[in-house]
Specification:
This protein has 103 residues and is of the alpha+beta class. It is built from four helices and six strands. The strands form three sheets. A two-stranded parallel ribbon has the order 1-2. It has a two-stranded antiparallel ribbon with strand order 3-4. The chain has a two-stranded antiparallel ribbon with strand order 5-6. A hairpin with a 2-residue loop joins strand 5 and strand 6.
């Protein structure tokens, strides 16, 4: 997280679970960024995000977005392997700063 903050980038998560479930998840896993709730699927449906069903629940597939001035500038999808995604996004951000200057 410090690497993203050093670049002036705020990180948020998004989940379709309720805020109550998210809070428990954040506390149990020591998540260092806020997780936003899309429990009514408004953003998911508006952006037509890819979803899948698991045990009767509709979930959003893993992805990462870079948003600037309320516009999606870059989408990282599919996310595989998931444990490498943060490094991939960070490398992309650093490359953009090095070649194009600030966002």
């Amino acid at each position: 997280m410090q690497d993203f903050r050093a670049l002036g980038v705020n990180v948020y998560g998004l989940s379709v679970q309720s805020p109550t479930i998210q809070l428990e998840f954040v506390q149990r896993n020591h998540i260092s960024f806020p997780i936003l709730s899309d429990a009514q699927y408004k953003l998911t449906d508006q952006l037509r995000l890819p979803t899948f069903d698991f045990e009767g629940e509709r979930l959003v597939k893993r992805m990462a977005f870079f948003v600037e001035k309320a516009k999606i500038k870059k989408v990282f999808y599919p996310v595989f392997p998931p444990d490498k995604n943060a490094a991939e996004v960070l490398a992309w951000l650093k490359k953009g700063i090095a070649t194009e200057g600030p966002f």
